[in-house]
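Please fill in the sequence for the structure shown.

STRUCTURE ENCODING:
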């Protein structure tokens, strides 16, 4: 399942983007690294804790595209033996530092997700991918095959990600209108973005050009099914763990955001669980 070399220029630009972002994220209030180390802040959403949290105790868990490992190590706190993979060397080094500083054991490996089966010869009870995972990948079918490859029979894939419909909308409007701007379906060429700042608080970036791909919800579900996994559920959610649009409001009692006007108009996130059959 090697990655397609025609996308190499995009991977390299995105890797440089994430290498720089990692240092900003480590210092950001958004991630609150010190609060995590002190045990007072969970990076997982209530949805992830409810749908995935009860499954992880005593299980071997692989986190694909783990960034600097905060979600990975929180799942270790819940009882999993964790391994995280990410293509950014800066993220992997930061994840290792966080593991040491928090005292939470975790293993972290640098690899492009498509190359992961070439550098890790193991199987896991759970494969997990969190918010913002799939937009960095050109081929969701190959991603699903990687996830299935790493699962033991009876193992579970759990994905919590931004809803692709929300991802098509212009995010620079202040008039409350939901305006489709970018591709919903998977395309060969990515959309290019030049945001001066990363999605957290922090200074402006030098490597601010990044490339992202859309993947329709039907494409994701079909990719998972074609990889040999059985769909257990697909849930869509009105809340997001960050503020994609200025016309959103915080959800009382949660670190989540929703549309201030008729939040039922738009799914912000979705969660998917699928199982690898025993035979």
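FILLED IN BY: designer on duty
SEQUENCE:
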């Amino acid at each position: 399942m090697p990655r397609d070399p025609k996308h190499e220029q995009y991977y390299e630009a995105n890797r440089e983007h994430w290498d720089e972002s990692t240092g900003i994220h480590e210092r950001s209030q958004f991630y609150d690294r010190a609060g995590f180390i002190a045990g007072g802040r969970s990076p997982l959403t209530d949805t992830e804790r409810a749908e995935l949290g009860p499954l992880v105790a005593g299980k071997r868990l692989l986190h694909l595209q783990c960034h600097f490992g905060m979600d990975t190590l929180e799942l270790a706190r819940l009882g999993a033996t964790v391994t995280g993979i990410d293509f950014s060397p800066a993220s992997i080094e930061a994840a290792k530092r966080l593991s040491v500083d928090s005292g939470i054991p975790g293993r972290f490996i640098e690899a492009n997700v498509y190359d992961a089966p070439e550098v890790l010869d193991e199987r896991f009870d759970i494969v997990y991918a969190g918010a913002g995972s799939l937009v960095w990948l050109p081929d969701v079918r190959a991603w699903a095959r990687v996830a299935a490859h790493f699962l033991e029979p009876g193992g579970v894939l759990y994905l919590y990600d931004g809803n692709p419909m929300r991802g098509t909308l212009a995010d620079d409007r202040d008039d409350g209108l939901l305006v489709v701007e970018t591709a919903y379906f998977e395309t060969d060429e990515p959309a290019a973005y030049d945001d001066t700042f990363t999605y957290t608080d922090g200074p402006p970036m030098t490597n601010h050009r990044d490339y992202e791909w859309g993947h329709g919800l039907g494409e994701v579900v079909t990719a998972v099914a074609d990889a040999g996994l059985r769909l257990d559920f697909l849930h869509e959610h009105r809340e997001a763990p960050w503020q994609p649009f200025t016309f959103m409001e915080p959800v009382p009692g949660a670190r989540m955001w929703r549309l201030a006007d008729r939040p039922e108009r738009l799914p912000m996130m979705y969660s998917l669980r699928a199982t690898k059959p025993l035979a």
